[in-house]
Amino acid sequence: MMTKKIAVLAASGKVSRKVITEAVKRGFDVTAFARKPENMTDAQHYVQKDIADLTADDLKGFDAVVNGFGTWSPETLPQHSTLTEHLCSILSGSPVRLLIVGGAGSLFVDKEHTTTLMETPDFPDDYKPVAGAMGQALTGLRRHDDVNWTYVSPAADFRADGERTGKYILAGEEFTLNGKGESIISYADYAIAMVDEIEKGNHIKQRISVVEA
Question: For this UniProt entry, which segments traverse the membrane (predicted)?
Answer without folding.
Answer: none
